[in-house]
Amino acid sequence: MTAQIIDGVLIAREIESELKIRIGKLAFKPILSVIQIGDDSASSSYIKAKAKAANRVGIELQHHHLPIDISLTDLNSLIDKLNSDSNGIIIQLPIPETLLSCLTRISPEKDVDGFHPMNLGLLMRGEPTLLPCTPAGIIELLQRSNYNLNGKHVVVVGRSNIVGKPLANLLLNKGIDATTTICHSKTKDISQHTKSADIVVVATGYLNTLNEDMVTENTIVIDVGVNRTDDGLVGDCAPNVANKVKAITPVPGGVGPMTVAMLMSNTVSASEQ
Ligand code: NDP
């Protein structure tokens, strides 16, 4: 059997069309400020993709490219200025650990990456807030593909603060109503969990974390991983997973475009406030 491919590019474009209509109703062009620190090449390519999406929907993306040795004081001064000049602000990760505290300097209502502890707290309480883009994109991807999450068992492999943990919390919220299991590098016999799942989300950043012996013909797989290999970008699933499961997201072209679309969506929501 070949799995149904869940097309993130198509669904992201659908979301962009809806955003253009919302932006058309604003009295101003939304401004998204993107802060890049250093010259990480993956960060540069992610920012390029964000700039292209911003251009398509009508958001002005302002790119602030800072040297790797910027001081925390100077960085915080820039964030203070952008808190009053922009509708949304993101800091492209990774950044040096000594600067990480700057993430909480962004006003929660401008935190369009949804990483601020205040926004994460609201998410956990099931209250409206700016949601982290990748988890929100995964929920949209499943719902818009008509996969009902109500009562489904979703196994999330990976427990990071930007993907695994917020996703598991979102899935648990009333209105989504999934039952969630979170696995990580210390989980014993991950396949015992994944084989009993309706949906498996794999977000580890390691090749072949999920193989065909860990899934069934009925599993829906969301592959969040981005691994750079000699053959190009690949996800966290072994290639033969797609020959067995019911549906799967491709890498590239699955979760990545949805993450960008949700960043645009958060920027529009922040602009509407
Ligand atoms: P982190 O490195 O922060 O977290 C990885 C998680 O995976 C950790 O919780 C780790 O467990 C767990 N893990 C590692 N190896 C295994 C294993 N063999 N079995 C089970 N769990 C394991 O990564 P991120 O969450 O930030 O990102 C994960 C992947 O998703 C990366 O490839 C990243 O590039 C990609 N990504 C893609 C996005 C997109 O838009 N497409 C957006 C964000 C991320 P432990 O905590 O025990 O160490």
From TrEMBL:
Residues 6-113 form the Tetrahydrofolate dehydrogenase/cyclohydrolase catalytic domain. GO terms for biological process: L-histidine biosynthetic process; methionine biosynthetic process; purine nucleotide biosynthetic process; tetrahydrofolate interconversion. One of its GO terms (cellular component) is cytosol. Pathway: One-carbon metabolism; tetrahydrofolate interconversion. InterPro entries: Aminoacid_DH-like_N_sf, NAD(P)-bd_dom_sf, THF_DH/CycHdrlase, THF_DH/CycHdrlase_cat_dom, THF_DH/CycHdrlase_CS, THF_DH/CycHdrlase_NAD-bd_dom. GO terms for molecular function: methenyltetrahydrofolate cyclohydrolase activity; methylenetetrahydrofolate dehydrogenase (NADP+) activity. Its EC number is 1.5.1.5, 3.5.4.9. Keywords: Amino-acid biosynthesis, Histidine biosynthesis, Hydrolase, Methionine biosynthesis, Multifunctional enzyme, NADP, One-carbon metabolism, Oxidoreductase, Purine biosynthesis. NADP(+) binds at G158, R159, S160, V226. Residues 132-272 form the Tetrahydrofolate dehydrogenase/cyclohydrolase NAD(P)-binding domain. It catalyses: (6R)-5,10-methylene-5,6,7,8-tetrahydrofolate + NADP(+) = (6R)-5,10-methenyltetrahydrofolate + NADPH; (6R)-5,10-methenyltetrahydrofolate + H2O = (6R)-10-formyltetrahydrofolate + H(+). Belongs to the tetrahydrofolate dehydrogenase/cyclohydrolase family. Catalyzes the oxidation of 5,10-methylenetetrahydrofolate to 5,10-methenyltetrahydrofolate and then the hydrolysis of 5,10-methenyltetrahydrofolate to 10-formyltetrahydrofolate. Homodimer. This is Bifunctional protein FolD. It comes from Marine Group III euryarchaeote CG-Bathy1.
